[in-house]
Design brief:
The chain has five helices and four strands. The protein is α+β, with helices and mostly antiparallel strands and 219 residues long. The chain has a domain of 150 residues: Roll (Nuclear Transport Factor 2, Chain: A), CATH 3.10.450.240. The protein has a four-stranded antiparallel beta sheet. The longest helix has 24 residues. It is elongated. About 16% of the residues have low confidence.
């Protein structure tokens, strides 16, 4: 056998040995195998769990009145006519109005309250103040705060867009009734009394006048 052929056989034998050796070390793969892929990242929700579902309940309404009640429907109509209307903001304003109107009445200073009172309410307040003055009585009062406030009723007249909202208050104040000599006839400047009131406010929704007027009072 000539030398070149012998060298070729030797090289072929070495190649076969290396292939068999590699197969024993690495194993074999049969068929098509996809390249390994990184583990998929969990898909993030496009909406957080606490997001309000479109078309869901309006919590600005149902936080104050029962869902589906006549009052809730009336408040929804108010918002439809005037989208900027907010029930929570209204009640915040009603809290401030209570102090302003109540203290103005107690102290007999109601002229400045006229824009916030319906005509018949203003006339009633003015009559009571006049009676006090005729009897020589003076009330010294200090407002302590609103202990409780809740929306008790709401109505809406679609033909006129007039809205009415009734608010129940429990207020705290000190009140002293004095005569012309300054003698205390009733009350105490240090004794806090609790007063319950039910007031109804009205306004034409969508109008340029933002003020609500006190149209009725009750206890």
């Amino acid at each position: 056998m000539n030398s070149p052929l012998l060298q070729l056989l030797v090289l072929a034998g070495i190649a076969i040995f290396l292939v068999l050796r590699l197969r024993s070390v690495l194993g074999t793969r049969e068929g098509f195998e996809r390249p390994s892929q990184p583990a998929p990242v969990a898909e993030r929700s496009s909406r957080r769990d606490f997001d309000v579902i479109e078309g869901g309940p309006d919590h600005d309404i149902i936080d104050h009145v029962a869902e589906g009640s006549e009052s809730a429907l009336a408040l929804a109509e108010m918002k439809r006519v005037e989208p900027s209307f907010n029930v929570t903001e209204f009640l915040s304003g009603a809290r401030g109005a209570y102090e302003m109107i109540l203290m103005g009445f107690e102290r007999g200073d109601i002229e400045g309250l006229k824009p916030f009172l319906a005509d018949d309410v203003y006339e009633t307040f003015a009559e009571v103040v006049q009676q006090r003055e005729a009897q020589g009585l003076k009330i010294e009062a200090e407002f302590v705060g609103v202990r409780e406030l809740s929306l008790s009723n709401a109505t809406f007249d679609a033909s006129t867009n007039q809205a009415e909202i009734t608010v129940r208050y429990v207020g705290e104040l000190t009140s002293v009734v004095k005569n012309t000599e300054g003698e205390v006839l009733e009350g105490s400047p240090t004794s806090v009394k609790r007063q319950k009131d039910i007031w109804t406010y009205a306004r034409i929704m969508g109008s340029s006048d933002p003020n609500w007027q006190l149209v009725a009072t009750d206890e």
